[in-house]
Amino acid sequence: MVYLHGFSFPNEGMEFDFFMKIKRTCYDSFYPFKILSRNDFATIVFEPVTILYGGNGSGKSTALNVMAEKTGIKRDSVYNKSNFYPDYVNMCEMQLKADIPENSRIITSDDVFDYMLNIRNLNQGIDQKREEIFEEYLEVKYAHFQMKSMGDYEQLKKVNAARSKTQSRFVRNELMDNVKEYSNGESAFLYFTEKIGDNGLYILDEPENSLSPKRQMELMKFIEDSARFFGCQFIISTHSPFLLSMKEAKIYNLDENPVKVRRWTELENVRTYYEFFNKHKEMF
């Protein structure tokens, strides 16, 4: 499915005209101006899966965040904008093929890291609670208790539970199922599967961060299926060879001047992996 059909960024001429209307001496940065135009990256025509590839500083994240701002889709983490960010976004143009669904969103590394940190903090809090319940178990199991009124009924239930269960079973029942026993990679993958629903436009900024190669391949399959069967469109920045290899993905190489559409096997990052493993193939 394609919701966002095309997107245009300001070219060098448009940027020059803008600069001539302001006093340049007042500012030391014009970000995001001059980032994408330096490699003549002016227009994108999208497919169900479109990928922006390039090294650090190539403008991948800038392009994604500008598109997210222009389309008005949701984001979790706060994005710091420069003084000229609204001016730049207003100069961009987009062409829609269908209305962008409300559940559309941009997912950045900050979103994923915050999610993993929240789970880690939750587990740390539960660990502390677990220690408290250990002590409570020993106290109620071996304490001399006599019920004197109906107000003591809840305490009686705890005493009986402690005396009838092992320590680990007592603690597990008290904590219920609040413990989230996930690794960082599992938490990151879970975040994507929770946030990406049916029929939406999803902008993903380097989703391979925190994912093992195996998890990257699982995410690749999840994205392919979501685009093919569940009405989703994806715009992704990545240099993961696994994500770059997605079927029918359209890849813009932001390392070239001018920016060009390339096959994934032509990209420098992928060629480096290929040459390395090919050199050592006798060891496998």
Please outline the major beta sheet.
6 strands, mixed
How many strand segments? 9
Strand order, sheet with most strands: 5-6-7-3-8-9
**Tally of domains:** 2
In a nutshell, what does this entry contain?
With 284 residues, the protein is an alpha/beta fold. The chain has helices at 12-19, 60-71, 85-91, 109-142, 153-164, 167-175, 184-195, 213-229, 241-244, 268-279, and strands at 4-8, 43-45, 49-53, 93-96, 105-107, 201-205, 233-237, 250-253, 260-262. Strands 5-6-7-3-8-9 form a six-stranded mixed beta sheet, with helices on both faces. It has a three-stranded antiparallel beta sheet with strand order 2-1-4.
Explain this structure to me?
With 284 residues, this protein is α/β, with parallel strands linked by helices. It has two domains: 4-109 and 183-283, 3-Layer(aba) Sandwich (Rossmann fold), CATH 3.40.50; 111-175, no CATH class. Helices cover 45% and strands 13% of the residues. It contains ten helices and nine strands. The protein has helices at residues 12-19, 60-71, 85-91, 109-142, 153-164, 167-175, 184-195, 213-229, 241-244, 268-279, and strands spanning 4-8, 43-45, 49-53, 93-96, 105-107, 201-205, 233-237, 250-253, 260-262. The strands form two sheets. A six-stranded mixed β-sheet has the order 5-6-7-3-8-9, with helices on both faces. A three-stranded antiparallel β-sheet has the order 2-1-4. A hairpin with a 6-residue loop joins strand 8 and strand 9. Helix 2 (60-71) crosses helix 3 (85-91). The protein is globular and about 80 Å long.
